[in-house]
Amino acid sequence: MRKYYVSVLLVLSVFICGGTVQAEKITMDQAVERALRLNPALGIQSFAIEQARAELQTRSLLPNPSLNYDREELDLNGIDGGEWIIAAEMPLNFLWRRGPRIGEAEALLEAENFGLDNKRELVRFQTRRLYLAAHYVSLELEARQKSTDLLLDIKRKSQLLKAEGDISGYDQRRIAFEVLRAERDFVAAENELTRHESNLSLLVYRDNLEMKVETEDSFAGKLPGLIVDKLVSAALERRGDLQRARARIAASGAAVQAARRAALPGVNLGLGYKRQIDGFEGPVGRLSVELPLFNRNQGTVAGNQARLDAAKLTVTTLERQIEAEIMVACQSYNRLRTQLAEYRQTIPENSEAMVETAKFSYMEGEISLIELIDAVRTYTEDATLRYGLLRDTYLGLYRLEYLTGGELQ
Length: 409
Hints:
This protein is of the alpha+beta class. It has 10 helices and 6 strands. It is about 70% helix and about 10% strand. It has a 4-stranded antiparallel sheet with strand order 2-3-5-6, with no helix packed on it. Strand 5 and strand 6 (about 280-290) form a beta hairpin. It is elongated.
């Protein structure tokens, strides 16, 4: 029995690698909460926020004054001369340059905060997607396990029938083919489940990969009908990446203003006290003005203006992209929702009871062996269709929440 050999090999491989995987049953919300707490991308973005906050603090500080002390001791043929001056000097450029620089730093800090919000929504969506996939593939795997067991039972009975001459060679080959195909599909589904569970564990447990999430039906609820216009309005108002791009427009605008003010003449003011050896003494002042004859900061102004224009174009492009993505995603979700409703109205819930009835009818001689095989295949295809529709529909709903930047009301 091939499937049992595969299971044994998987168990042995785990022991050889040095440990066992422990399953923990948690809800989807619990999985999302843990992923948000442990995801390294969010930690990296938090460091970016701290860097932006530190830059804002630096730009908010006033410039340091400088303290100067000059002393002269002169002598000419025995005649002494000299003086000393103590003065404090401070640049006055901050009076017109500080405001725009602080505004740029504030906008960049706001942009990084919006970036964190956007990454949190991405982690939430990724966790939900993997949780959904693992949950419904595991249910599909259970159905395939039952189908494989039924086909193996049919195969054993067909060997007895062949010995008695009650079944043809073609029918027996057909049964063997169905068994091999069921085992192949079972292994493929098992590999898919392993991949989803591994990726989900990486998000939820991060540094403890010996743990595995055991899913449960903790997310089932209403699947509301959605309107594109309302979703687009919500996305344009709260999408983290869009808000971040808009904040970068404000930052670039402040950078342009700061560059233009940096072209104004630099002014330094100094005040001090002077005393000469001949007894003259008193306060002194100094005013120095930079003459912007050659360097008027043209390059920096042009570069910042180009960044501002690029930021505006980025926002416009992103808004159009968001509208298009939501339109397609909403249409897809509504179609899946309609298809799921039609399935529920058309196909009965007790498909497992139907295959049991077919098995009983076969034992009573009411249907043929091939008809029983068709019933088993129908049961498997029904499970694949049912769980696939449920997974895709919920995934469509969660994708719309990600595209709109939060929970749908």
